[in-house]
Design a protein that fits this description.
Pfam families: DinB_2. By secondary structure, this protein is mainly α. The protein contains 6 helices and 2 strands; from the N terminus they run αααααββα. A hairpin with a 3-residue loop joins strand 1 and strand 2. The radius of gyration is 17 Å and the shape is globular. The N and C termini lie far apart (47 Å).
Length: 161
Amino acid sequence: MTTATAQATVIGKEQLLKHWQGHRNLTRRVIEAFPEKDLFEFSVAGMRPFSDLAIELLSIGGPALRAIVDRAATPYSEEGIAPKTKEALLKLWDAETETINTYFERIPEEDFSQTFNLFGQYEFPIYQNIFYFIDNEIHHRGQGYVYLRALNIQPPFFWER
């Protein structure tokens, strides 16, 4: 005799977006903490400046969600994202937050377990792609924390998302 067990939902779609946006809010505060010159120039041990890491994040979240909604395996690209000031970077960050909100809402909850070929390279369920976006942001924000501490600047508390 076989027993079917219903899969319990641990976190819902709205909670996942709120979690992600909490991370984005914290990363925004890390960007704000940098002196403008250091945001674009300072690095440690040959790593990229934090502005470059933020540009990478801007090139992933919104464009990837747009591709998921459109079911288009578009290649990864940072083309056209080249802010020259902290204000311009923050403006792009805020616009991308709205893009994420808009496209996230267009993904039906039942589609999150469907696979998607992210950037034509990675074939995973949509929810795993979103976890990748969050994990990548946490990873790069950690680099930003190292930079801020090397500059003797107190980074925002990581738990205040």
